[in-house]
Amino acid sequence: MGKFTLELLFQIIGIGSASGLIYKDNNLFIIGDNSGYLYEYSIDSKDLKRHALLENPMENTPKKDKSDFEAITHYGDSVYVFGSGSSENRKKMIQVDSKNKTILEKTDLTDLYALMQSFGEIKPEDFNIEGAIYNGKNLFLFNRGNGKSKKNVVFTIHGKNLMNEFNILSNDYKLPKIKGVRSSFTDAILIDDKIYFLATAEDSNSTYKDGKILGSLVGRIDLETMKIDFIKKITDSHKFEGITLYSKNNETIEFLLCEDNDTEELKSTIYKLKLPVQH
């Protein structure tokens, strides 16, 4: 892999602990793991709108009560937001109409998450969904291996719905260490037949408690083989938790990244990552 560039693009006041984002029509849809809102930010006007995902939503929900929205994806006119599944109240999926911002459906994923844990041989305390991709046929969910067992797993779910008619496949990954700590998935996006993913090394053996950030990586998985094409460290200090496509041509591909600052400060920083296209 050739040289990359990473630059701070802008800051958004009013969003804290950003955990996922989607770039569409020069707007950003953003979720925060502390928040009960889907945020919509206009890059041109710098206008920030809040769309409630829950009844009585809060900006900084207490840790024990939060829905822990860690993964976001979209297909067609729908945006899908997923709870991490790392505790009992973190197992919701919410489907939102991206045009009028109304909630189309709320789904309890308790049974699906339990089957994923069984199929992927992941203990409940090591289960932590932090990335999602939906391409109209398959749903890909990324377990962040930041529990004691370090189980980085990509689940492929195919079927008519997520309640009772689906099949599950799983692929395990041993991601690189940074300063002796195993890195773990934090988000992913599908572009053509390649999955680009983020991973972070955090000095903690808990899916619940935060630890010291040791750096983040970007990598790519071939959709056909489900094997990693490349992986590269892009920072020693940032915890990147969201990735979305910004622009692409024959030579370069640009992503927007968001950073989870693990604080209650309502400020989120958006970065631009530029990579050479790997053929």
Give the gist of this structure:
By secondary structure, this protein is mostly beta strands. Helix content is about 5%, strand content about 55%.
Can you offer a commentary on this structure?
There is one protein chain. The protein is mainly β and 279 residues long. It has one helix and 22 strands. The model has no long low-confidence stretch (mean pLDDT 92).
Cα gyration radius (Å): 17 Å
> Largest sheet, described in full?
4 strands, antiparallel
Terminal-residue CA separation: 10 Å
* Structural class computed from helices and strand pairing: mainly beta
What string, H for helix and E for strand, traces the elements in order?
Answer: EEEEEEEEEHEEEEEEEEEEEEE
Which range does the strand content fall in? over 45%
Strand order of the largest sheet: 1-22-21-20
Helicity range? under 10%
List low-confidence stretches.
none
Anisotropy-based shape: globular
| DSSP strand tally | 22
Number of separate helices: 1
Residue-averaged pLDDT: 92
Notable characteristics:
279 residues, mainly beta, four-stranded antiparallel sheet, 22 strands, 4% helix
Give the secondary structure arrangement, pairings included:
Elements: E1 5-13, E2 18-24, E3 27-32, E4 37-42, E5 48-52, E6 69-75, E7 78-83, E8 92-97, E9 103-108, H1 110-119, E10 129-134, E11 138-143, E12 152-159, E13 166-173, E14 177-178, E15 181-182, E16 184-191, E17 194-203, E18 212-222, E19 228-235, E20 240-248, E21 252-259, E22 267-276
